[in-house]
Write a structure and sequence with these properties.
Helix content: 40-55%
CATH class: Alpha Beta
CATH architecture: 3-Layer(aba) Sandwich
Number of domains: 1
CATH topology: Rossmann fold
Radius of gyration: 15 Å
Structural class: alpha/beta
Shape: globular
Strand order of the largest sheet: 2-1-3-4-5
Strand content: 5-15%
Number of strands: 5
Length: 142
């Protein structure tokens, strides 16, 4: 089973809550997930050691995951989320996005997410798309 890195903005309780719901849904279908604020902690910008620890834990997780799911919210997608998506894409990993507001979707992020084919509007659609994608990938393996 795949290990999924869940990227998204972590600035408020609502964002973290929604990311946790994404993780719960994916874990409920058998995927292993890495959720940065849950598994590495939040960065304390007043503490350089906290920054080092969280950065290194996140890079280790990015390297150990083979899929990235990113919450793409707001008029300008979160810079950390964008960096995580770019890192995964540059390393040949498959990226998915979730947003229900396509008015402001960054074109590069759209492209990273399969030129829009791997972007969905809600968690249930994400689970269905991942299941279909996973089945199709397994069918292609010899």
């Amino acid at each position: 089973m795949h290990r999924i890195y869940i990227a998204g903005p972590l600035f408020n309780t609502h964002e973290r809550w929604y990311l946790e719901h994404i993780a719960d849904a994916l874990e409920g279908t058998g995927y292993a997930t890495f959720l940065p604020h849950r598994d590495a902690g939040l960065v304390d910008l007043r503490d350089p050691q906290s920054q080092v620890k969280v950065f290194r834990d996140d890079i280790t997780a990015l390297d150990s995951c083979d899929i990235c799911v990113a919450l793409l919210t707001g008029p300008d997608q979160d810079s950390g989320t964008s960096a995580e998506l770019g890192y995964m894409f540059a390393h040949g990993r498959t990226c998915f996005g979730i947003t229900d507001d396509f008015r402001f979707l960054n074109n590069m992020l759209w492209g990273i997410c399969g030129e829009g084919t791997r972007i969905v509007a809600d968690i249930n659609s994400l689970v269905k798309l991942l299941s279909t994608w996973d089945r199709d990938q397994n069918a292609q393996e010899p």
